[in-house]
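Same chain as my last thread, 480 residues:
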Amino acid sequence: MERPPSEPPMADDPSAALAEAELPAHYRRRGELEAATRHPAHPPVNSRRLLILAFLAPIAGAAAGTIDAIFRVVLERADHLRNLLIARGHQTPVFGFCCIVAGCAAAVTVAAWLVRRFSPDASGSGIPQVEAALNGHMASAPPKLLPVKFFGGLLAIGAGGALGREGPSVQMGAVISHLIGVLFGRNAEELRLLLAAGAGAGLAVAFNAPIAGAVFVLEELVRRFEVRMAIIALGASSTAILISRLFLGSEPDFGVAISTHAAMATGPLPYAAAAAWPLYVGLGAVAGVAASLYNRTILGALRLTDRISRVPVEIRAAAVGGAIGIIGWFFPALIGGGDEITQRLLAGRMAISSVPFAFAIRFFLGPASYAARTPGGLFAPLLVLGTQLGLVCGELCQAAFPHLGISAEAFAVVGMAAFFTGVVQAPVTGIVLVTEMTAAFTTLLPMLASCFAALLVAQLLSATPIYDALLERLTKDNRR
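reply #2:
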């Protein structure tokens, strides 16, 4: 008897429905069921077009690297100026306090006004906007976004907002790369590839992490491995880093205190003892819980601003800026992007007794700063919180198990990757990013265990990846 020809599954096939229901929510929400259940067919490679893209990628990377490196340099100067003004303000306490609070409020207000008046797409991180453009949910941002993102980010972060420089860097890199593709007459698909590659180049420059920039494109932006995309992303990131290091130097972003147990040939930290691995898994579980709460706090802050949308955005931004100024007057080290906090923690220059208080301040200051709708990202504040969380857990484990030779700084480095993984749910990007930023290669295996636990706990707690949640908000706003 002949076998009947196989028929496609019916639309109401319960097994198909079950398969779809078992997929993560963000796959279903973004219409990626087919991509999640089978390997997509790769289109044939057009050698001529690939060579053109391979030629354009370094050009785009060089342009993105130049503007993003200048942004980093100017932002560092702004941070230094803010700290100097706060120190001088304390010489005349009453007048100085009023000037600092008013100055921070004014800077954040101007940043919010620039966004509202000239380029609403420059609000926030910029990564959800890049993802929306890649998915075809919105057009690529116009060139006028560049000055708004540059100067708006400079004002908001320079005034002390707990925001990351990577948001402006990613979006500016994407816009510049897209413009280069337009100038060379590329088609829509090639413009999409250049857009994603420019975004990765921006991230690479923001953290001096070229591999993480390319991985970020594949894991977070396009969410699949595509050979053309990998070639272009690597070309753009490598050239962006080459240019940016002329401005910033080649040292890793963070210097880790050298442990007495470390073998210097492999980095500043020792390899973790096998008996300590369950402790790293526990750190990951704690980071997963904290990351789930942090995601909800960010989204809650945004919902709160939605409820008071009748209040002009500039007034809301002024209130946030004033609060930043008050915190900065009493605790100047706790405001801003947070790189200095992370560096002090990793170098062992911060009293452990002050870390829980600093963690609490930063935990709420980050979402409040993001809700002001000014340019600024989320990565750098996440790294601060992960470092603080990891250092506290490391100190506790060190006290409880002194015979294991635990390094609290190693827990701090691993905590950065675990907390990042719990919030963004892009573990490979988190691991590569933290490893490149710290040069702590001996922590790679503990990072794997900790990120495994953080991602598992975040999923069990139904924590939506933060950029998926922000993309969903952005799409709804555009439909309105």
